[in-house]
Amino acid sequence: MVLWLAVACTGTPEPVGPAPDARPVSLARGDLAYLADPVVGYPLVIDSGRERALREAWRALVEEGASSQALAVAGDLLAVDPGLHPATVLAAQVGFARRDYAAAAAALRPVVEELPGYGAAQLLMGRLSEELGHLPEAYSAYRAASGDSDLAAERAAEILPRALDILAHRLDEALGRGWLEEAEGLLVTLTAWDPDATVTLEATRRVATRRGDPEGELAAVIRLGERFPERRDLIERRGELELEVGDPASGLEIFTALVDQFPGDPTLAEKLERARFRWRLNLLPEVAQRAAAEVELRRGSFAVLLYWLVSDVRYRRPERPRIATDILDHPQREAITRVINLGLMDIDDTVHHFSPEDPLRQGSALAALLSVLAELSERPAACIGPAGPGQAWETVCASAVRCQLLTDPVECLPQASLSGAEAVELIRRTLKQL
User: Fold this and answer.
1) Does residue 2 register a pLDDT over 70?
2) Which of 100-104, 301-305, 397-401 has the lowest mean pLDDT?
3) What is the set of domains in the chain, with CATH numbers?
4) Mapping DSSP to helix (H, G, I), strand (E, B) and coil, where does residue 257 land?
């Protein structure tokens, strides 16, 4: 361990390790600019005698390269008062002058963490972090010092793009490892540093997608689309999100324009059909629109969607009436009763409860929709297989894939919750089979 680090970290003036070189250090003019007077901007009270000693030692360091003298003064002061931050800064300046960047940064870090507005410490911390290749840390320090230092402001502006890229890469790594909380913390920093940067908007979009926040993703996609109006992926994603949580009319308009531009694209044709179906929800009663907007759909709300989106549910006469005692006072009793009596959704026969406020599970929704195909279709398709409540989940999943309610078996997650928008899409695919 070098002498100056022992002084800075322990406040002990006795030498540790080899004696320092007493010859003056030679600093380039550019490096001298980062050695600000450690007393200037110090936010705590310091007595005049110590202030004078610090300034004389600092001047000797920057004007004559007298690093040993500066280190001795810092050591003497820290021996008396280990919490005298300007003395630690002076010792770190000696470390910088001697190009011992890692040790200088380690000694200085507690100071900037305790006093983030201490300009002389932050200016030096920025330069040390640059020398060590830690650009986000360098930008953070320069940013903190920029109010007191034009040099810090210039360096901050120059390295900001690279610092943002590094943070965005760290954020992607965190998402890749499933560390959402860490990614969200990095996003907070990106947004504080430059909320309008493209990398920040892209990161905002990725984090919103991972946390299941379609509104947040839509806001980011809209801003990115304004910046890159020709990016088809952004246009399509905005259309999908508008249909899900935004303005369905805007989503319909987006996909109509895309189909006109790319008339032979079957994927776009399917998305336009979905957009038209979603837009028709605007014509239904408000209770159906509210159900479609639920983030975690309830069983009663799914019954409402079936009632209003599948016309046969409203008009078909049930043949096996059943009673659920927990919906007698429910505002959507008629819709729920019709769905139960058509055999599309089950009740607990032991207590005769439908549990309308319980979350809907994907498996129950798929079983109900397969029952729609089996019970309400004039000529049930061969894809249906065994249908109805109570069947094994493997059977439900296999039938759902055969009937194109799902595109891949891995999408079948029977115990997963469903949003209203996801349920609406499943109902649309069911009606397509009808």
Assistant:
1) no
2) 397-401
3) 3-148 (1.25.40), 163-282 (1.25.40.10), 286-433 (no CATH)
4) helix
